[in-house]
UniProtKB/TrEMBL annotation:
The keyword ATP-binding applies. This is Hydroxymethylpyrimidine/phosphomethylpyrimidine kinase. Keywords: ATP-binding, Kinase, Nucleotide-binding, Thiamine biosynthesis, Transferase. It comes from Sutcliffiella cohnii. Belongs to the ThiD family. Residues 12-256 form the Pyridoxamine kinase/Phosphomethylpyrimidine kinase domain. It catalyses: 4-amino-2-methyl-5-(phosphooxymethyl)pyrimidine + ATP = 4-amino-2-methyl-5-(diphosphooxymethyl)pyrimidine + ADP; 4-amino-5-hydroxymethyl-2-methylpyrimidine + ATP = 4-amino-2-methyl-5-(phosphooxymethyl)pyrimidine + ADP + H(+). Pfam families: Phos_pyr_kin. The keyword Cytoplasm does not apply. Its EC number is 2.7.1.49, 2.7.4.7.
Length: 267
């Protein structure tokens, strides 16, 4: 049976992050990809030139159409922009009883542009996080949600516990923004931690890494993998995508979404 995954996120005209990164990743992992677009960004590797949130009805209607005909086996959320959108998306996920929910709490683009309004943080905490099978904050996002300062692995473990208490079944605090030479993503299931370690690749081409990582988790959950299995595949997927760089654009270039497939063929 074909497995189906849905992304509820913003469009990145540059193709490296958002909806575009998610659909490419679903496709690479042999899962049928669907989308409900929340906002359109005019964006390239140099930054975000414009943000246009879609009307609420447009987002709700996209989700309704999917529920009526193509129920997803797993879904992820990315850029949700404001509290109205967060509340509406959360309501629909709850009403449709959609499972395998991956929340990537996107806040700021690599170039510094705001992809989530400050007023939306409470909605994120109270409405969306309780629906999460997995939440995947980077360090700055985890700092905003937990109001902790996260310079050490120990502090990040504390933050993971707070995020679990807020209602996420599993928490991945990603380590890309950390200061350690070795890169550590922390997976917490409410009881114990798994440390996913990798070398830190020296590159500026990391546009869309968070989206791609969360999309790979979503695709694997759609196939029925456990969260731990899914996160391990996602870590390998994003590592290959960063390592085998495309080198396009003059700023923070996109990752290589077909690198994992090629690595799998050649290894
Ligand atoms: N320079 C890097 N080398 C290897 N892996 C990286 C690098 N930067 C990020 N990653 C991986 O990419 C994923 C996303 O990382 P992170 O930068 O923390 O989040 P975001 O892209 O949301 O800011 C994580 O799995 C992280 O380990
Ligand atoms: C539409 C959209 N969604 C998300 C991101 C975050 O991307 P990154 O993974 O680089 O933080 C982005 N730049 N644009």
């Amino acid at each position: 049976m074909v497995k189906k995954a849905l992304t509820i996120a913003g469009s990145d005209s540059g193709g490296g992050a958002g909806i575009q990164a998610d659909l490419k990743t679903f496709q690479e992992l042999n899962v049928y990809g669907m989308s409900a677009i929340t906002a359109i960004t005019a964006q390239n590797t140099l930054g975000v030139q414009g943000v246009y949130a879609l009307p609420l009805e447009a987002v709700i209607e996209q989700m309704n159409s999917i529920e009526a005909d193509l129920r997803p086996d797993a879904l992820k959320t990315g850029m949700l922009f404001n509290s109205e959108l967060i509340e509406a998306v959360a309501n629909n996920i709850r009403e449709f009883n959609w499972g395998n929910v991956v929340i990537d709490p996107v806040m700021i683009a690599k170039g510094g542009a705001k992809l989530l309004q400050q007023e939306a943080i409470n909605s994120l905490r109270e409405t969306l996080i309780p629906l999460a099978t997995v939440i995947t904050p980077n360090i700055p996002e985890a700092e905003v949600i937990t109001e902790l300062s996260l310079h050490t692995i120990e502090a990040r473990k504390k933050a993971a516990k707070v995020l679990h208490k807020l209602g996420a079944d599993y928490v991945v605090v990603k380590g890309g923004h950390g200061e350690e030479e070795e890169l550590v993503d922390l997976l917490f299931d409410g009881q114990s931690f798994v440390e996913l370690k990798s070398t830190r690749i020296s590159t500026r081409h990391t546009h869309g890494t968070g989206c791609t990582f969360a999309a790979a988790i979503t695709a694997e959950l759609a196939k029925g993998k456990t969260v731990e299995q899914a996160v391990k595949v996602a870590k390998d997927f994003i590592h290959a995508a960063i390592k085998d760089e495309l080198g396009i654009g003059s700023g923070h270039g996109p990752t290589n979404h077909w690198a994992y497939r090629n690595a799998a063929v050649h290894s």
